[in-house]
Amino acid sequence: MRRIFFYPKDGIGSISQLMSEEIKTNQGKIFTCARAVSINTNKGYADSVDYINQQGEKVNLKCDYIISTIPITSLVRIMQPSFDSNIHHIADQLKFRASLFAYFMINKKCVSDNTWIYFSEKKYIFRRIYEQRNYSQYTVSPGKTALCLEISCNENDNVWCRQDDKLFKDILDDLTGLNLLKENELYDFKIMRIKDTYPVYSLYYKEKLNSLLSHISKIENLISNGRQGLFNYNNMDHSIHMGFLAGQYVASCKESQDGWQNIIKTFDAYKLID
Ligand SMILES: Cc1cc2nc3c(=O)[nH]c(=O)nc-3n(C[C@H](O)[C@H](O)[C@H](O)COP(=O)(O)OP(=O)(O)OC[C@H]3O[C@@H](n4cnc5c(N)ncnc54)[C@H](O)[C@@H]3O)c2cc1C
After folding, report:
1. What pLDDT is attached to residue 165?
2. Which residue numbers in the chain have pLDDT < 50?
3. From the alpha carbon of 36, which atom of ligand 1 is closest?
4. Residue 132 CB–ligand 1 contact under 6 Å
5. What pLDDT does 1 receive?
6. What ligand 1 atom has the least distance to the C-alpha of 225?
7. How far is residue 71's CA from residue 168's CA, in Å, rounded to a whole number?
8. pLDDT at residue number 4
9. DSSP state string for 217-265
10. Angle formed at CA 115 by CA 4 and CA 20, multiple of 5 degrees
11. If you measure from the C-alpha of residue 130 to the centroid of ligand 1, how many angstroms do you get, rounded to a whole number?
């Protein structure tokens, strides 16, 4: 079966690029490379956020409303005054898988005509390969291609901590063994580590998640949203939909959080496509 999907000509970043232009046109401000380290509350109301900027300085930003999409397990840990230690303990039990992404830059037109290839066999270090050219040829240089190899792991396990050169060698061995690549076709590589990529649905995760959400809902002007923010294993279109609903909810100036708790329940109906 062959399925067709639509993809932005210049890559998926075009969507956030357009959104950011719209925000700036409407006098909004965007701070990137800003790591939120504290949400400061007073009598059940969030007054401000402290973040660390690109220069490593701590900046305080006053706020009327916060829609947080950082992992819910991080959110409950940065609340000030600090949430009860029992809440931190529950957050410790909700786990995310981490991912390593290895990008291989290749001196040939294409490796295959697939967008994704999945590998379930444990003998391969990667679980999935993407070939960017097959989403849009305009995202790679003419005559060249690139592969992204996705490796699943846990933060700080032996795969996560493996040195880049060793990882490169393990991946290359698998790719050459599969006859997908010859070493002399490769001209560069880069490895990235991202924690908190996949929520792990272990037994009773829902009860634990609901405890965290119930605690967050006591802060009148704070909601947690998005894939990591709601521990919801979803796709991009779902997250955009969540964003629209959160925007409408805040714009309608709901005083009680009950409405948001009901909206969250509808997110369980999302159907994942990969
Ligand atoms: C490997 C992988 C492949 C995927 N492929 C697809 C696909 O092909 N198609 C599809 O539709 N969906 C795909 N998805 C899902 C898609 O990426 C998500 O649904 C979507 O990005 C979630 O959007 P979000 O805004 O909720 O969260 P995110 O996009 O994860 O954004 C959350 C942001 O919060 C930031 N953050 C974390 N902590 C802090 C902090 N303390 N301070 C400030 N910022 C912080 C993170 O760096 C991140 O940028 C994929 C997901 C993964 C992990």
Report:
1. 95
2. none
3. 42
4. no
5. 65
6. 26
7. 29
8. 77
9. TTSTTEEE-HHHHTT----HHHHHHHHHHHHHHHHTT-SSSHHHHHHHH
10. 80
11. 17
Closest CA to 232 of 218, 246, 221, 219: 246
Q: What does the pLDDT read at residue 94? A: 97
Domains of the chain: 31-94+202-269 (3.50.50.60), 96-199 (3.90.660.20)
Can you tell me which atom of ligand 1 is nearest the CA of 197?
A: 53
pLDDT for the residue numbered 41 = 98
Cis peptide before 81 (omega within 30 of 0): yes
Q: What is the pLDDT of residue 37?
A: 98
Is residue 99 within 6 Å of ligand 1 at its C-beta? yes
Q: Is 235's C-beta closer than 6 angstroms to any atom of ligand 1? A: yes
The whole-model pTM stands at 0.93
Amino acid (one-letter) located at 20: S
Q: Is 70 a pocket residue for ligand 1 (Cβ < 6 Å)?
A: yes
Tokens at residue 89, please? 């303990």
In this structure, the chain runs to a length of: 274
pLDDT in the model for residue 270: 87
CB of 19 sitting under 6 A from ligand 1: no
pLDDT tens digits, residue range 158-195? 999 999 999 999 999 999 999 999 999 999 999 999 99
Assess whether the C-beta atom of 68 lies below 6 angstroms from ligand 1: no
